[in-house]
Amino acid sequence: GATPRVRQLTAGLIRHLHDFARENELTVDEWMAGVELLNEAGRMSDSKRNEGQLVCDVLGLESLVDEITYKLASTAASEPTATAILGPFYRHDAPQLPMGASIVSGLDNTEGDCTWMHGTVTDFRTGAPIAGAVVDVWHTAPNGLYEQQDPDQPEMNLRGRFTTGADGKYAFYCLRPVPYPIPFDGPAGRILKALDRHPFRPAHIHFLLTAPGYKPIVTQIFDRKSKYIEDDAVFAVKDSLVVDFVPFEGDAKAEFELPYDFKMASF
Ligand code: DHB
Ligand code: FE
């Protein structure tokens, strides 16, 4: 049988759906259009396209659920790194790479601004470095596509996992990301259009941090200079996740440096 929680969620959903229909005097034709939107999202979805999640995201639901789930009770001066939505393009099996490696493969090296990203993963309470933390990173290519959306990119391009040693430090080469539109050729795009909204996200890099004994952190960082930083189509930007790419002199392989420390909370 259903758990009390499933019962509560189901009853709540019905109550709000009925209120929605009554408040708007929803007609049969309008309801059927909604059903078709759901069906179309289902038909479009496969391992490379998660239209259901996109629909939720343009409605702000994933960002709201992120906020509710990871809201901090503490008022401490120091807080763990803020969370942000996972989005529909995570892949759980990104390559494990040696510290300091590049996640860029198969792109002409004139494409994109190479960036040296580095920092330390620490315990937010003690400040101690965390050993064995896995920094799982992914972002789009300069054409605005994730590798699974783009037959011209090698498998797993711009994805990697890096494991910290005793000093808690991580480092890798990536590209300075660009703003890009979420896929808008389906139901999520139609919702945006109906609301006169654009489909763009500000330039961002995704992370999933895990470490033994610590709560995982799903997050993104955002380029302060990027267009759409104030106007993300999926409402994921938080002030503490906005970062500065710094022109980098010391390294022929990178035009920019991006220092960023992650702070985790133990269980
Ligand atoms: C969404 C999130 C992303 O990070 C992205 O690159 C595309 C879409 C989303 O929330 O739907
Ligand atoms: Fe993304």
Structure overview:
By secondary structure, the chain is of the alpha/beta class. The chain has 5 helices and 12 strands. Strands 1, 4, 10, 11 and 12 form a 5-stranded mixed β-sheet that branches. A hairpin with an 8-residue loop joins strand 10 and strand 11. It is globular and about 65 Å long. The relative contact order is 0.18. The mean pLDDT is 95. 3,4-dihydroxybenzoic acid binds next to helix 3.
Question: What's the main sheet like?
Answer: 5 strands, mixed
Strand-residue proportion: 15-25%
List the uncertain runs. none
- Overall, the morphology is globular
DSSP, total strands: 12
Instruction: Give helix and strand order, one letter per element, not per position.
Output: HHHHEEEEEHEEEEEEE
Q: Roughly how many Å apart are the termini?
A: 31 Å
- Number of helices, where a helix is a run of at least 4 consecutive DSSP H or I residues: 5
Provide mean pLDDT, rounded: 95
Structural class: alpha/beta
Task: Determine the fraction of residues in helical runs and give it as a percent range.
Answer: 10-25%
Bound molecules: 3,4-dihydroxybenzoic acid, fe (iii) ion
- Using only CA atoms, what is the Rg? 20 Å
